[in-house]
Write a structure and sequence with these properties.
This is Transposase IS4-like domain-containing protein. One of its GO terms (molecular function) is DNA binding. The chain is α/β, with parallel strands linked by helices. Helices cover about 35% and strands about 20% of the residues. It contains 5 helices and 7 strands; from the N terminus they run H-H-E-E-E-H-E-H-E-H-E-E. The chain has a 5-stranded mixed sheet. Helix 4 links the parallel strand 4 (about 110-115) and strand 5. Helix 3 runs parallel beside helix 4. The longest helix is centred in the N-terminal third of the chain and has 20 residues, at about 1-20.
């Protein structure tokens, strides 16, 4: 009986793999994106996190295939991957992100992307699709990181006097450690150079 069950599972697995391997990847991606848009609209998902990862188990040493880098959109409220775009290399995330964004219904949502996605064209595309964004900022954008640090250091030193802002503090006591996160938000970017905007 056990052998029949195992063989049955194996046959089902092989059958499913055979059917899926015959699907057009582009058509499947479009259908999947359409379904995730419907799910997202139905539940009102608000935060979409875009991040690049290398697909685990995609490396095939025997055939000389390297691991497959992907850019994924994660619907935080739905806990669902809303879309993915493969890249040739990790460094090609910048070209994959706009393609992925085109697949998504962004209106009224907030999109987060790490520093790799901190690009003017990506920010404009998100805005044009009706969403807001939070982009990571590191030293990969000329002097922008230093200028933003200066804006906040000056504002904090003066107690944000005369600077319209919001601040949020979160405390988290998970995994045996206390974490306190403080956020300061302002739209007053008057001291940033025009090149950095």
């Amino acid at each position: 009986m056990l052998r029949e069950t195992v063989l049955g599972v194996s046959r089902a697995h092989d059958c499913i793999a055979y059917v899926i391997s015959g699907l057009s990847p582009k058509a499947f991606q479009e259908c999947f994106a359409s379904w995730t848009r419907a799910v997202s609209e139905a539940t009102g998902g608000e935060l979409i996190a875009i991040d690049g990862k290398t697909a685990r188990g995609s490396r095939d040493r025997r055939r000389g295939k390297s691991a497959l880098p992907m850019v994924s959109a994660w619907g935080c409220r739905n806990r669902l991957v809303l879309g993915q775009e493969a890249t040739a290399e990790k460094s090609n995330e910048i070209t994959a992100i706009p393609k992925l964004l085109e697949l998504l219904e962004l209106k009224g949502r907030i999109v987060t992307i790490d520093a790799m996605g901190c690009q003017t064209k990506i920010a404009e595309q998100i805005h044009d699709q009706g969403a807001d964004y939070v982009l990571g900022l590191e030293g990969n954008q000329g002097t922008l990181h230093d200028e933003v640090e200066d804006v906040f250091a000056t504002a904090r030193a003066g107690g944000f006097a005369g600077v319209a802002h919001d601040d949020i503090e979160e405390t988290d006591n998970d995994h045996g450690r206390l974490e306190v996160r403080r956020y300061w938000i302002t739209e007053e970017l008057g001291t940033l150079s025009e090149a950095s905007r």
